[in-house]
Design a protein that fits this description.
The protein is 48% helix and 19% strand. The chain is α/β, with parallel strands linked by helices.
């Protein structure tokens, strides 16, 4: 009987080791967004496609953050790039089921106007209607107007809820004042020029944010991972972060090469637009306690309903 039990335990141990080895050898499933939040992933995606990455990866690109969110919720994604408020919402919805690994994008928002209506200060928006895409852009603009004590501004984030929709409206002269992220600003200016319409990126909202809030606390994009994956595969997380940091450095180190690899990997369709927009995209790699300080300061300024009902706990931040 003891011999049979020993054999059974040995078999179970072998099966367990095999299962762990199998998961270690499987591709790390990474979801990323097209557009600025995904720009920094481009070189890593290109390296993986050419067999030059340290890990085996399975990349999925999405245009909608809710699809990335759902992939994390279902367990289909191990790691994902997301807007920071969505990351916080996920943490609260899953009782700590995700952690933020690093910040990847600071502020990318600009107030775009017709050239004849260009403004030099937020105070000049009093009495105006300002159109914003839904979610982070609207929340950030509202926080800025509140701190700058600018009243009588109508913020409209429903007429053109998607940045692409607002970009088209701006480029065709349908709105006078709009908040747009890069690279939508670059596209709108280029299309408007073809329509004989002159646009101006009147205000850099990152510069405006710095006047009222802690320095470097406007952080719009991040990369997260499922907590269970982090705990089960710390070596893979460390390897991914090293490769991801190098990927961001590559993209930001040479805008021409960066734009080329962004287009080649399908994160954005036009290399020329990406190259032109990259200097204003504020890509970054911030981890550890600096990440925690910046992101917690940002989330403090957001409506609780936009971040999942409460500020995340200390365990939201991956601090290896």
């Amino acid at each position: 009987m003891r011999k049979i039990l020993t054999i059974l335990l040995a078999c179970l141990l072998i099966c367990s080791l095999f299962a762990c080895q199998k998961r270690e050898n499987e591709a790390v499933r990474v979801y990323t967004l097209t557009g600025t939040t995904g720009f920094g992933m481009a070189k890593l995606m290109d390296d993986a496609a050419n067999g030059n990455a340290a890990l085996s990866y399975q990349f999925t690109k999405e245009t909608d953050p809710t699809l990335v969110r759902d992939a994390l919720l279902s367990g289909d994604a191990d790691i994902a790039a997301l807007p920071t408020n969505v990351a916080s919402t996920l943490y609260n919805a899953t009782n700590g089921g995700v952690r933020v690994l690093a910040l990847n994008t600071k502020g990318v928002l600009h107030l775009v106007t017709k050239e004849a209506l260009a403004v030099t200060a937020l105070s000049e928006l009093s009495g105006k209607t300002v159109y914003c895409p839904a979610q982070n852009p609207a929340f950030i603009t509202a926080a800025l107007l509140r701190e700058a004590k600018v009243v009588n501004v109508q913020l409209d984030s429903t007429t053109y809820a998607k940045a692409e929709e607002l970009r088209e409206a701006v480029a065709n002269g349908y709105v006078d004042y709009a908040v747009l992220p890069e690279p939508m600003v670059t596209i709108a200016v280029n299309v408007a020029r073809q329509n004989d319409l002159a646009l101006a990126a009147s205000l850099d909202l990152t510069a405006e944010w710095e006047k009222y809030f802690p320095a470097n606390s406007l952080v719009q994009g991040c990369v997260v991972a499922r907590t269970a994956f982090i705990e089960a595969h710390p070596d893979q997380i460390a390897a991914f972060l090293a490769e991801y940091k190098a990927s961001i450095a590559y993209v930001m180190g040479d805008y021409t090469k960066g734009g080329d690899v962004i287009a080649r990997t399908g994160i954005f369709s036009s290399a020329a637009v990406a190259q032109n927009a990259l200097p204003r995209c504020n890509l970054c790699y911030i981890d550890g306690t600096a990440m925690q300080a910046a992101l917690s300061a940002f989330l403090t300024q957001m409506p609780l309903g936009s971040i999942g009902g409460a500020l995340p706990g200390e365990d939201f931040y991956h601090l290896p």
